[in-house]
Specification:
Elements: H1 15-33, E1 38-41, E2 55-58, H2 66-77, E3 85-87, H3 91-99, E4 103-105, H4 107-116
Parallel strand pairs: 1-2, 3-4
Length: about 120
Protein backbone atom coordinates (compact mmCIF):
# COMPACT_ATOMS: atom_id res chain seq x y z
CA UNK A 1 0.00 0.00 0.00
CA UNK A 2 2.95 2.38 0.39
CA UNK A 3 3.32 2.42 -3.40
CA UNK A 4 -0.35 3.32 -3.75
CA UNK A 5 0.01 5.94 -1.01
CA UNK A 6 2.63 7.89 -2.97
CA UNK A 7 -0.25 9.76 -4.63
CA UNK A 8 -2.67 11.70 -2.43
CA UNK A 9 -5.55 10.95 -4.79
CA UNK A 10 -7.96 9.82 -2.06
CA UNK A 11 -7.03 6.17 -2.63
CA UNK A 12 -8.06 5.48 0.98
CA UNK A 13 -11.73 5.98 0.07
CA UNK A 14 -11.71 2.73 -1.93
CA UNK A 15 -8.62 0.63 -1.35
CA UNK A 16 -9.82 -2.16 -3.64
CA UNK A 17 -10.15 0.23 -6.59
CA UNK A 18 -6.70 1.65 -5.78
CA UNK A 19 -5.27 -1.87 -5.77
CA UNK A 20 -6.90 -2.63 -9.12
CA UNK A 21 -5.55 0.59 -10.62
CA UNK A 22 -2.04 -0.23 -9.38
CA UNK A 23 -2.18 -3.70 -10.91
CA UNK A 24 -3.32 -2.18 -14.21
CA UNK A 25 -0.37 0.24 -14.18
CA UNK A 26 2.06 -2.52 -13.23
CA UNK A 27 0.80 -4.77 -16.02
CA UNK A 28 1.32 -2.07 -18.63
CA UNK A 29 4.73 -1.19 -17.23
CA UNK A 30 5.81 -4.83 -17.00
CA UNK A 31 5.02 -5.45 -20.65
CA UNK A 32 6.71 -2.24 -21.81
CA UNK A 33 9.81 -2.72 -19.64
CA UNK A 34 10.07 -6.49 -20.09
CA UNK A 35 10.26 -6.96 -16.32
CA UNK A 36 8.72 -9.61 -14.08
CA UNK A 37 6.58 -8.08 -11.36
CA UNK A 38 5.12 -9.46 -8.15
CA UNK A 39 2.82 -7.22 -6.13
CA UNK A 40 2.16 -8.21 -2.53
CA UNK A 41 -0.88 -6.72 -0.82
CA UNK A 42 -1.60 -6.76 2.93
CA UNK A 43 -4.96 -8.39 2.29
CA UNK A 44 -6.93 -10.02 -0.49
CA UNK A 45 -8.60 -7.47 -2.76
CA UNK A 46 -12.34 -7.73 -3.14
CA UNK A 47 -13.20 -8.82 -5.73
CA UNK A 48 -9.99 -10.79 -6.32
CA UNK A 49 -7.59 -9.31 -8.85
CA UNK A 50 -6.26 -11.70 -11.45
CA UNK A 51 -3.55 -11.04 -13.98
CA UNK A 52 -1.93 -13.02 -16.75
CA UNK A 53 0.93 -10.50 -16.89
CA UNK A 54 2.14 -10.07 -13.31
CA UNK A 55 1.84 -12.05 -10.10
CA UNK A 56 -0.74 -10.60 -7.71
CA UNK A 57 -0.58 -12.02 -4.22
CA UNK A 58 -1.26 -11.08 -0.64
CA UNK A 59 0.05 -11.84 2.80
CA UNK A 60 -1.36 -15.08 4.22
CA UNK A 61 -2.70 -13.34 7.34
CA UNK A 62 -3.88 -9.76 7.59
CA UNK A 63 -1.88 -7.99 10.30
CA UNK A 64 0.48 -5.07 10.66
CA UNK A 65 3.48 -5.43 8.33
CA UNK A 66 2.07 -8.64 6.87
CA UNK A 67 3.04 -7.72 3.30
CA UNK A 68 6.57 -6.86 4.47
CA UNK A 69 6.87 -10.28 6.06
CA UNK A 70 5.63 -11.98 2.89
CA UNK A 71 8.13 -10.01 0.80
CA UNK A 72 10.94 -11.07 3.13
CA UNK A 73 9.79 -14.70 3.11
CA UNK A 74 9.85 -14.71 -0.68
CA UNK A 75 13.20 -12.94 -0.80
CA UNK A 76 14.79 -15.37 1.67
CA UNK A 77 13.51 -18.30 -0.42
CA UNK A 78 14.84 -16.84 -3.68
CA UNK A 79 18.01 -18.52 -4.94
CA UNK A 80 19.19 -15.24 -6.52
CA UNK A 81 18.02 -12.37 -4.31
CA UNK A 82 20.58 -10.08 -5.94
CA UNK A 83 18.32 -10.08 -9.02
CA UNK A 84 15.32 -8.88 -7.01
CA UNK A 85 14.33 -5.23 -6.66
CA UNK A 86 12.12 -4.44 -3.68
CA UNK A 87 10.03 -1.30 -3.99
CA UNK A 88 9.13 0.21 -0.63
CA UNK A 89 8.96 3.37 1.43
CA UNK A 90 9.49 1.41 4.63
CA UNK A 91 13.04 1.91 5.89
CA UNK A 92 13.05 -1.26 8.00
CA UNK A 93 11.91 -3.41 5.06
CA UNK A 94 14.45 -1.71 2.78
CA UNK A 95 17.28 -2.46 5.22
CA UNK A 96 16.21 -6.09 5.64
CA UNK A 97 15.89 -6.62 1.87
CA UNK A 98 19.25 -4.99 1.22
CA UNK A 99 20.87 -7.25 3.83
CA UNK A 100 19.66 -10.29 1.86
CA UNK A 101 21.23 -8.90 -1.33
CA UNK A 102 18.24 -7.31 -3.06
CA UNK A 103 18.33 -3.85 -4.53
CA UNK A 104 15.80 -1.40 -3.14
CA UNK A 105 13.96 1.45 -4.80
CA UNK A 106 11.78 4.00 -3.08
CA UNK A 107 8.07 3.92 -3.78
CA UNK A 108 7.87 7.51 -5.01
CA UNK A 109 10.62 7.11 -7.63
CA UNK A 110 9.18 3.79 -8.81
CA UNK A 111 5.70 5.31 -9.06
CA UNK A 112 7.14 8.01 -11.35
CA UNK A 113 8.76 5.28 -13.42
CA UNK A 114 5.58 3.27 -13.93
CA UNK A 115 3.55 6.38 -14.66
CA UNK A 116 6.05 7.47 -17.32
CA UNK A 117 6.50 3.95 -18.70
CA UNK A 118 10.26 4.13 -18.16
CA UNK A 119 12.45 1.04 -17.61
CA UNK A 120 14.34 0.09 -14.46
Amino acid sequence: MNLIATRPDEWWRDRDVAMLQLVDQLERWSVAAGEDVVVVFERKPSPPIRSTVIEVTNAPKMKRHAADEEIMRRLAADSRPQLVRVVTSDRALADRAYTLGATVEGSASFRLRIESGGPF
